[in-house]
Amino acid sequence: MNMKPIEARSGNYNLKNYEETYNDFNWEDVKKQFSWNETGKVNIAYEAIDRHADDPSMKDKVALHYSAPGREETLTFEDLKKKSNQFANVLDKYGINKGDRVFLFMPRSPEFYMSFLGILKKAAIAGPLFEAFMEQAVHDRLEDSEAKMLITTPDLLERVPQDKLPHLKQIVLVGDTTGFEGDQYIDFQKEMNEASESFDVEWVDLEDGMLLHYTSGSTGKPKGVYHVHNAMIQHYATGKWVLDLKEDDVYWCTADPGWVTGTSYGVFAPWLNGVTNVIRGGRFSPDDWYETIAKNNVTVWYSAPTAFRMLMSAGSEPVNKYDLSSLRHILSVGEPLNPEVIHWGMEVFDKRIHDTWWMTETGAMLICNYPCMDMKPGSMGRPIPGVEASIVDNEGNELPPRQMGNLAIKKGWPSMMRQIWKRPEKYESYFINGWYVSGDSAYMDEEGYFWFQGRLDDVINTSGERVGPFEVESKLIEHPAVGEAGVIGKPDPERGEIIKAFITLVDGYEESDELLEDIRQFVKKGLSAHAAPREIEIKDKIPKTRSGKIMRRLLKSWELGLPTGDTSTLEE
Ligand code: PRX
């Protein structure tokens, strides 16, 4: 896939020369940007919001521009400081302490951001959940984290199995609370109205926890990836070099904060850089999206390949209706960015779409395309300054250029996860010979550009969302008609992959379209829409190893008509 590089255009970029910066780099210089470098007082929410709110030239600047169907709101840095202080006071009143897990299960809204920042100011640990999660998914995450408090809406509360969550003591309701009786319910608006606008931020250690993001692996329940305040160093730096954020920018990250992109780059990177942040609620539609750019004069736009592909297939009619000339820099994350999409971007926006690679576990961008750098379509780019990336074999030995292997990062970058919640052995298993091994396969070319090749495990990436096959299989077999289940990702031109399930039927059940739809709905209602299999195929048997592990690789080879490879461990 070696196409002609797309040359960088000249411009006054924050990162002027990639090689020079990379070779002559020191994280200590970045740390000098933070107030704690002088005061010793650390808190990421203080750096993101209060620091600007306390600066007379910045306090009235718009921090958050929120829009959703039927609602529009603008908050300055000073507004956000006051609102998050109020919420921190509410947490204080209800006995939330440093390190307590406070989860958020609600749509993107100004209340989400006030609460989220308030949690951090109170030195508690925030756990954002996708609004689309259904009961099982919500339960597993709240149970594992032993969350003490949940912030949600009255509508979503029916998906919270309160009786099965002994640690969950308090529920803050955002919205109309009539009919909710009981000491556990707290009325968000009422408490906010009564709370003081000043709060003494709780100072923490750089290594203290701030965020728990649940993400999927190929085995077991989702795991809690634990991030600490220190991550701000890299959020800030990548905001500067990769997003190329400058004072006058209007920035829009399309990701939901239930996903790490929506926190690291939907909260921290823009606000640490003091930039106006656009948040759009509601569903995706090409018109709404283009309108968001046009109406807010968005200059820097961070989105995902699935979204770009959907915009691409919507054709030129919607795009031609809007003036998108404010855009100066476009970026992508989450799945491989097809060269075709980059070429489409050149045509309709006259801009390159810059791919970035990272993961929930890495906390921030690691391998990127920079505005100052020539871009090779199909490549994820080169490591950020201060980070060493390589391709290693299974023992952690580095491989020469063009050889495929494990994409690995030298342990110890600032935003690296510090724990897998309550699972130290799982955490250790990511590191081999001093390298963090990502689970992605890739190769590096002679010029140090990295090229993504695929996942090495069975994790499915559907529309940029990571789905663990085990979680879906577990839900499937709860359906009375399903005996066994094996779940794989099947390549799909728009979504990257779709979820395909192979199942066996329990005796007495007959295959029918209604039954398959019922099974699909069962997963959708129990887990989440994005985890529901788009295709279900009935088999007599699900292939397993002699030790009882589902051989998803074999299912995949069958599906794709590929050679089945080594099947020596297959049970007869
Ligand atoms: O397989 C890689 C894919 O997404 C995985 C990480 O998913 P998640 O933790 O949900 O975080 C996504 C956003 C940070 C990776 O292991 N991935 C992410 N970015 C890219 C990518 N695959 C190809 N190209 C990318 N730029």
TrEMBL record:
Superkingdom of the organism of origin: Bacteria
Keyword Zinc-finger part of the UniProt annotation: no
GO cellular component labels: cytosol
MF GO annotations: acetate-CoA ligase activity; ATP binding
Keywords of this entry: Acetylation, ATP-binding, Ligase, Nucleotide-binding
Domain AMP-binding enzyme C-terminal: 471-549
Top-tier EC class: ligase
Gene3D superfamilies linked: 3.30.300.30, N-terminal domain of ligase-like
Enzyme nomenclature, EC number: 6.2.1.1
Pfam families in the record: AMP-binding (PF00501), AMP-binding_C (PF13193)
Residue ranges of every copy of the AMP-dependent synthetase/ligase domain listed in the record: 59-420
GO BP term, example: acetyl-CoA biosynthetic process
Xref: NCBIfam families: PRK04319.1
Protein name in UniProt: acetate--CoA ligase
Organism of origin: Salirhabdus euzebyi
